[in-house]
Amino acid sequence: MRGRRLLFATCACLAAASLFGLLSMMVWSNQSKYRVALDQESQLPGVSKPKVDEWGPLSVLRGPATDSLWDNLQNDTKYITSWPSAGWTNDVMTYANLIYLARLTERVAVLPPFIPSHIGGEAGSIPFGHVFNTTRLGQSIGIPVIEWQDVKKPDTPVKDDMGCWDIWEASQPDEHRPRGSWLTHVLNLDISFTRAPNWIKLVPDDDNDKHTGFMALASLGFPRVRDAELVTPYPSEEHGALLPPSLHFLCYDYLYYVAAVKPFEYSSDYSPAWRFSGRYMRWTDRLEQLTDKYVRKTLDVADGLPTPFYIAIHVRHGDFKVYCEETPVKDCFAPLPVIARRISEIQQALLSKQGLDVKHVIMTSDERDPEWWADVKKLGWKTPDHSKTEELYGRWYPLLIDAVIQSGGKGFVGTDGSTMSELAMRRCETWHNGEVRMVKWGRIGADDH
Ligand SMILES: Nc1nc2c(ncn2[C@@H]2O[C@H](COP(=O)(O)OP(=O)(O)O)[C@@H](O)[C@H]2O)c(=O)[nH]1
Ligand SMILES: *[C@@H]1O[C@H](CO)[C@@H](O)[C@H](O)[C@H]1NC(C)=O
Ligand SMILES: *[C@@H]1O[C@H](CO)[C@@H](O)[C@H](O)[C@H]1NC(C)=O
Q1: Same domain as 327, residue 264
Q2: Mainly localized where (predicted)?
Q3: Disulfide-capable partner of 212 in 96, 157, 200, 277 (CB 3.0 to 4.6 Å)?
């Protein structure tokens, strides 16, 4: 008893001390951190009350984007970045991993745009902040989240040298170079990579798995571990610069294959990258409002009535047929009655657990076969009309609107093995307390249960 009380007293003392420390730090950082922004604003004629860009880029940068990234970094702030090189949802996960690492290392995450790898190169890239609300994200995780376009001018002539970790090679015995990303060229960066140590690999004896561990990667961002692991870096492509991994602006070649416990863990309930990062990546207001318009039109909701609850489906076909191997495609992908069975399960669960009778069902899919879509219609399921979406909003928007629809229901039925489904499932359950199911496929009866 006594021991426990003593412990309690010690804890209370420590808590008070750290609260005091925290408060004084907040006051201190409010003063020093925003000084630059305040000075700039007060120089503008006609600005009487300086605005503080509290969770925006100016709170952690010297000012608006510069030609060289190094001219815009504050010397008392630490940053972290990486680059994408896959399909959109994979890149969303890559960025969620980056943001989780930003929390683990207490650094400001600098986010690149999304690249159009699946939707056609001519679509161009789209800034992260057009899709996700960076201000709200920064507030939720307690560290501002900024974008590359805030740091460095997009059309800059300056090619910046950077020293980064090459983790791609360390995770796979058969790789002998860092993973490339088209974006490092777009951002005009000349990177000198240092091969990371093999102990960052998550499953040491699995040569075919590419994962590294979150905390192992984080540790490389601290001076004692970094210094102990320095080896001769690769020269940068253009300038031949030889640079150790920067501790000011920490960077890794590619962060898709990162996990805490086991590979591909985003669907696991414990997934730290989801719980401490991905869940806070909320859509921008504009994207939510636009999607709401599409949902209302899809469900034919009269003006003045609220948007009703619905159950969303994501059927992933397209290039997934390569996984069917010798199984004929018609026996491989889950047929519609199998999906309908999952819909009824969700409807029953919503009724019994939440007292909700949800009838509306919205199908999203990359399937193009008109016969298949006709069968979807026969089941009474609706689908968003994207016939004008590209023309009105651009190439990215059928995908973005579908992703927001998938995440916005009271229930979700997804395709097993699709990361797009996986994130929609997590969003639906975390944000809307939704009922979720994943449909298995690959052979007749794969989803029987
Ligand atoms: N508009 C739209 N595009 C889709 C849909 N399903 C798949 N796609 C396209 O196919 C890509 C799938 O790649 P990715 O996002 O990495 O997810 P995954 O391959 O399913 O794990 C998406 O990024 C879209 O470009 C859908 O329901 N609607
Ligand atoms: C940080 O930058 C400021 C202003 O540019 C300078 O006065 C200060 O000495 C620098 N601090 C360090 C530790 O380099
Ligand atoms: C971000 O979220 C905040 C609420 O947290 C909202 O006020 C703001 O308008 C949102 N910004 C965008 C770009 O969606």
Answers
A1: no
A2: endoplasmic reticulum
A3: 200
In a domain, 446, yes or no: no
389 within ligand 1 shell (Cβ under 6 A): no
Query: Of all atoms in ligand 3, which is nearest to the CA of residue 286?
Result: 14
Q: Which of 298, 366, 368, 388 to mutate for ligand 1's pocket (most ligand atoms within 8 Å of CB)?
A: 366
Nearest CA to ligand 1 atom 1: 399
What is the pTM (predicted TM-score) of this model? Answer: 0.88
- Ligand 3 mean position to 360 CA, how many Å? 28
> What is the structure's pLDDT at 223?
98
Candidates 259, 318, 206; CA nearest to 94 is 259
Cβ atoms within 10 A of the Cβ of 358, count? 20
Which ligand is in closest contact with the Cα of 74?
A: 2
* pLDDT number for residue 19: 47
Ligand number nearest to the C-alpha of 63: 2
Count of domains observed in the chain: 2
- 3-state SS assignment for residue 176: coil
* pLDDT of 7: 37
Both 259 and 386 in a single domain?
A: no
Do 257 and 314 belong together in one domain?
no
Q: Does 418 sit in the ligand 1 pocket, CB within 6 Å?
A: yes
Enumerate residue ranges in the chain where pLDDT < 70: 1-52
CB atoms within 10 A of CB 170: 19
pLDDT value for 52: 63
Q: Which of 399, 404, 407, 412 to mutate to test the pocket of ligand 1 (most atoms within 8 A of CB)?
A: 399
- Which of 280, 305, 328 finishes a domain? 280
Of 264, 280, 296, the last residue of a domain is 280
Q: In this structure, what token pair is assigned to residue 164?
A: 């980064």
433-to-111, 141, 409 alpha-carbon distances in Å: 29, 21, 10
Residue-number span of the structural domain to which 407 is assigned: 285-439
Ligand 3 in reach of 135 Cβ (< 6 A): yes
**Ligand 1 in contact with 316 (CB < 6 A)?**
yes
Read off the pLDDT of residues 193-251 as tens digits, 9 standing for 90 and up.
Answer: 999 999 999 999 999 999 999 999 999 999 999 999 999 999 999 999 999 999 999 99
Q: Are residues 189 and 323 in the same domain?
A: no
- Give the separation between CA 388 and CA 396, rounded to whole angstroms: 13
**Same-domain status, 349 and 411:** yes
Query: Residue holding tokens 């690149």?
Result: 112
pLDDT tens for residues 49-58?
A: 444 678 999 9
